[in-house]
Design a protein that fits this description.
The complex is a heterodimer. Chain A is an all-alpha fold. Chain A contains 13 helices and no strands. Chain B is of the alpha/beta class. Chain B folds into 2 domains: 217 residues, Rossmann fold, CATH 3.40.50; 67 residues, Alpha-Beta Plaits (2-Layer Sandwich). In chain B, a hairpin with a 2-residue loop joins strand 9 and strand 10. The chains are: A mainly alpha, B alpha/beta.
Chain lengths: 317, 318
């Protein structure tokens, strides 16, 4: 068997025997399936009330709620939950084996350290992706049983993106785990990275951009594009903007979605609409296209792994 | 082609020189015992062999292939390793461990036959986390045997084994050698080495101080036999040093009423006894025996009192 696959398979078999993974699977499946059920229930209740009082509907909403509406709601929960689960499931992937001595077994067999890093990415990636993506696919089955229309293509796209988000944070975590020499360092590294991305990244972007704008004498359009690009370089921002691309028709609106902060993709506020308008007037530059944002997200898989592997490679065990 | 070649290997940890220009060649097909007190550099040597640790200088070759970081995975398909200070995957069964080793080496071994061979038949389906230290040691030995390796590297293989397990370990080493494999193993339990090794290397302070067959070491050290003398009271230092001055006496140790004299080839034991008595020591009883490897080992590593350890008790995992 290919050494990477041998490591991945062993890692997967080991991890699925842990209670934590069972718990996470139940959590994901429960959240997604029951979430879909409650959402459909709310929608049908609202529809009944609206049926009793038809004039209240007006023309304000975005039409009838469908599974895309559910995804908008769900994406903020996913943005918070999936990375945490990925980090918890993977922070000790390599350093844990290093401190327990099982790494010596692993490296005594014909595996290189690269095989270990890539194998761990695949093994832990499968451990996190299977319940997350599987839970989403299961929740699709809820919609035909309700009045809410299912849009299968966006739903599958969302499941795929969520899988990529999970892999991204598994990769970040495995990279930290490869570089760390103690469990504590791995915990500090992964938790620090997550909080940094969730809380501090976007807060840092705006002051940075205004500083740059002052020195470089940028126009308003440049400021907007710079700010959006920097926020898209955050994997959480990239994920949110790609989800927004799935559920809206306008790329400009999807890119502007990151200006409202990480979790706000469900409703575009006034400012976001303004930014989106500005952006579509300017035209979408290549570095703000969907493809570019996918690349930003994928970079978060590659870069932490390469750095982590580099440090692991030169370490004395 | 040599199975193991270390050429001028030096490894420093900060200011500590763990290995100092160490060179060693283990020929194909031999059983080589690697001896040394704790802290002498045994584990560092094996860690260098397995690419766990990178030497500061020197060349390392396994089965003719240079060991370089990330490039030695292929040659390790032909090497079986029982590392020191390993852990097992607590949640995976013994059989899963073996399946992993078999997958990793692209081998076709039967896990049950391997379990049987190391004395774990019937325990294959239990999680390895429930195993005792000795059972873990057996399991990892079985993993090392996967794929009929050309070279077995066993680091302190008797750790945690009961006498039965230790005997089985020796049997396995003999069987593997009979099959044509090279076996390199380290130990501080000298009886293990003496019983199965073609050649022995002794390391002290990061340097090889002797490499030879057990007989050759005996001859080279001149320690043909040991004289154990029981004396009344305690022998004074003057008496000991006059014995020490005799031609052919290589070592004199005294502990309580016991004087241990290591004799070279041409000294007569009566000379020793006479010398003691003329120095005013009353000899109660005496006994001679052929030098065991342990005496040789002590003779070679004399002066390392800090490293003296109770031979026979299994060492703790590092």
């Amino acid at each position: 068997m290919n050494p990477v696959l041998a490591v991945a398979r062993k890692d997967f078999e080991d991890a699925v025997r842990s209670r934590g993974v069972l718990l996470v699977s139940v959590l994901f499946v429960g959240l997604f399936v029951f979430g879909a059920y409650f959402f459909a229930d709310q929608v049908s209740q609202a529809a009944t009330q609206a049926g009793n009082a038809p004039p209240a509907q007006g023309g304000g909403g975005g039409g009838t709620p469908d599974s895309d509406t559910f995804l908008r709601v769900l994406s903020s929960a996913v943005t918070l939950l999936v990375p945490v689960v990925a980090l918890v499931a993977s922070y000790s992937a390599i350093v844990g084996e290093r401190t327990s001595g099982t790494l010596k077994l692993l490296l005594s067999l014909p595996h290189s350290r690269r095989d270990v890093v890539v194998g761990k990415l695949l093994g832990r990636g499968a451990v996190v992706c299977l319940p997350a993506v599987g839970g989403l696919l299961l929740s699709m089955l809820v919609f035909p049983l309700t009045d809410v229309a299912l849009k299968p293509v966006t739903f599958l796209g969302f499941a795929l993106l969520t899988g990529v988000l999970a892999i991204t944070f598994v990769a970040l975590s495995v990279g930290v785990s490869a570089a760390a020499s103690t469990d504590r360092r791995a915990v500090v590294g992964t938790v620090g990275a997550y909080i940094g991305l969730l809380v501090f990244w976007n807060q840092a972007v705006d002051p940075l951009v205004s500083r740059l704008a002052e020195t470089l004498d940028w126009g308003q359009a440049t400021v907007l594009k710079a700010s959006i690009t920097l926020k898209l370089l955050n994997p959480l921002g990239a994920y949110n903007s790609l989800v927004a691309s799935l559920v809206t028709d306008s790329t400009a609106a999807a890119r502007a979605a990151v200006t409202g902060g990480i979790q706000l993709s469900r409703q575009s506020g006034f400012l976001q609409r303004l930014y989106a308008q500005q952006l579509s007037q300017e035209g979408i530059p290549f570095y703000l296209t969907d493809a570019a944002v996918v690349v930003y997200l994928l970079l978060w898989i590659v870069v932490p792994l390469v750095i982590g592997y580099g440090l692991f490679r030169s370490a004395d065990l | 082609m040599a199975a193991i070649e270390l050429d001028g290997v030096t490894k420093r940890y900060g200011t500590l020189r763990a290995l100092d220009d160490l060179s060693l060649t283990v020929e194909e097909g031999e059983v080589f015992g690697f001896l040394g007190p704790n802290g002498a550099g045994k584990s560092t040597t094996i860690n260098v062999l397995l690419d766990f640790v990178r030497p500061d200088a020197g060349e390392v070759r396994l089965l003719g292939e240079p060991v370089r970081r990330e490039e030695s995975a292929r040659v390790r398909e032909r090497v079986g390793v029982l590392p020191e200070g390993f852990g097992v995957y607590d949640r995976l069964s013994g059989r899963k461990h073996l399946a992993f080793a078999i997958d990793s080496k692209d081998a076709a071994d039967d896990p049950d036959a391997l379990l049987e061979r190391v004395g774990l038949a019937g325990d294959g389906d239990r999680p390895a986390g429930d195993y005792s230290r000795g059972m873990k040691q057996r399991l990892v030995l079985a993993m090392a045997l996967v794929g009929e390796p050309d070279l077995l590297v066993l680091d302190e293989p008797s750790t945690g084994l009961d006498p039965n397990g230790a005997r089985r370990m020796r049997e396995v080493v003999r069987e593997e050698a009979a099959r044509g494999a090279t076996v390199f193993f380290s130990s501080h339990i000298l009886g293990q080495v003496e019983a199965v090794c073609d050649r022995v290397g002794i390391i002290r302070d990061g340097e090889m101080i002797a490499v030879d067959s057990v007989e050759g070491l005996r001859a080279a050290s001149g320690a043909e036999s040991v004289l154990e003398v029981s004396v009344a009271g305690e022998a004074p230092e003057a008496a000991l040093s006059s014995v020490r001055d005799l031609d052919g006496v290589s070592e004199v140790r005294a502990a309580g009423g016991q004087v241990t004299v290591t004799l070279g080839g041409d000294v007569r034991k009566t000379d020793v006894l006479n010398e003691l008595e003329s120095a005013g020591v009353e000899v109660v009883d005496f006994e001679t025996r052929e030098a065991s490897l342990e005496d040789l080992f002590t003779a070679y590593t004399e002066g390392d009192e800090a490293d003296e350890e109770a031979a026979g008790t299994g060492g703790e995992p590092a």
